[in-house]
Amino acid sequence: MKHRAVLTLIYSAGLRISEAIHLKVYDLDVERGTIHVRQAKGRKDRYTLLSQTAYKLLEQYIRIEKPENWLFPGGTEGRPITARTIQHVFEKAVQKAGIQKPATVHTLRHSFATHLLEAGTDIRYIQELLGHASSKTTEIYTHVSIRGIRRIQSPLDRI
User: Fold this and answer.
1) Beta partners for 34?
2) Residue 159 lies in a domain
3) Which end of the chain, N or C, is less surrounded by CB atoms within 10 Å?
4) Residue 93 lies in a domain
5) Burial of 127 (0-12, 13-18, 19+ CB in 10 A)
6) How many CA atoms lie within 13 A of 19 on its CB side?
7) d(CA 4, CA 62)
């Protein structure tokens, strides 16, 4: 349950693995539908999305596991889950799903950004959600998909 919850949250919020590891229970704001990411890359705080679907899973996980401090506690008392544990769980999930393409936990973050872009979300919002200082980083990060290009209509065709 914990492993499924952490992977779901990483994808649904576009989190880095280190950000997911360091989440505390009180960082979830259900009413606002946000997650407070503290001291992310560059030692900056930011807010990102708390998906309703992800929260339903987290709610079950919290009810069963009852985490007190860290949202995803590790095997050592008082410590959060390790990056290696999450990576290992992800590798097993990829293998079990029969995915042949190379993928890492960070692929979930890329997918979050790409899927938002494909759905028409303004790149400036995606930049904010990912915590990028520069839009150039976000543009590289969210490689443009063929599907997105196909939706663009030439100005000539509009005349």
Assistant:
1) 29, 49
2) no
3) C
4) yes
5) buried
6) 30
7) 12
Count of CA atoms in the C-beta half-sphere (13 A) of 127: 12
Please tell me the pTM assigned to this model: 0.84
Q: What is the mean pLDDT of the chain?
A: 87
What are 159's two structure tokens?
């005349």
Q: How would you class 62 by CB atoms within 10 Å of its CB: exposed for 0-12, middle for 13-18, buried for 19 or more? A: middle
Judge whether 113 lies within some domain. Answer: yes
Torsion on CA atoms 85, 6, 49, 124, rounded to nearest 10: 30
Assigned domain for 156 exists: no
The pLDDT value given to residue 159 = 66
> Which active-site residues does the annotation give?
16, 41, 106, 109, 132, 141
Read out DSSP for 10-58?
A: HHHHT--HHHHHT-BGGGEETTTTEEEE-S-GGG--EEEE--HHHHHHH
Q: How many domains does the chain have?
A: 1
